[in-house]
# Entry
Amino acid sequence: MRFDVITLFPDYFRQCLQVGVVGRAFERGLAGLHVWNPRDFTHDNYRRIDERPFGGGPGMVMMADPLMECLDAVVQADEALAYTVYLSPQGRPFTQAKARELAARPRLVLLAGRYEGVDQRFLDARIDEEISLGDYVLSGGELPAATVIDAVVRLLDGVLNDADSAIQDSFENGLLDCPHFTRSETLGTDGVPEVLLSGNHALIARWRRKQSLGRTWLKRPDLLDESRLSQADAALLAEFKAEQTGNPPADGRNP
Ligand code: 9D3
# Structure
């Protein structure tokens, strides 16, 4: 899969997608990354990409013209169909489902904005979809673009090994992960649930499932539709709830 990023800070991407499974995926050629600076598509002496907004008000806006020329060059750089995404606070929230959808495309072009935003005429003419990372204010779209690339690349065929894939499944099922424990020089096995030391793999799997259900109920009740749990899961969650000491808040939230 080919990624093109349009950004005023190209260096940001060269650094940040070089590590871990994602970095290795680019190294192995499972994905390609091309970074473009709209400033290279200006024609004035000042290489100007921002302007004051019509109508006045504070802040600057990214001009349509350099972005149009830049995107023309991006599109022409490869024959595969380019799907264009603008990272913006006005976008629909990014989700794992959206990552899956994007991972099925041959090419993704990501526009990272700066300043107050981008001339609406460019967005209307050239952007297929706007995506937000969530309801908080960032200073630009670079970190969101890198986040989307990370989430998408790890879904591409051949990127994750079997061990990682299993972990991924446990989040894609809509539940939080169970707690993890490992060897400690200083702590020994203090505080490690007995069952994990038992060697009984059926019991261990059952305990982990129960913890996943229980933690999701405690921390992220919004992810849990209790009416749609299997009978086995409903029983595990009931067990978890019964073991809770004290009274959890009525909405199930853990303070
Ligand atoms: C502080 C300026 N804001 C209104 C006066 C508007 C504003 C413009 C540009 C707020 C943030 C940004 C830069 N943010 C992004 O480019 C961005 C973003 C975000 O801020 N939050 C969540 N997801 C995203 S995706 C891109």
Remarks:
- Residues 87-89, 113, 116-117, 132-134, 136-141, 144 surround 9D3 (CB under 6 Å).
- The chain has two domains: 2-153, 168-255.
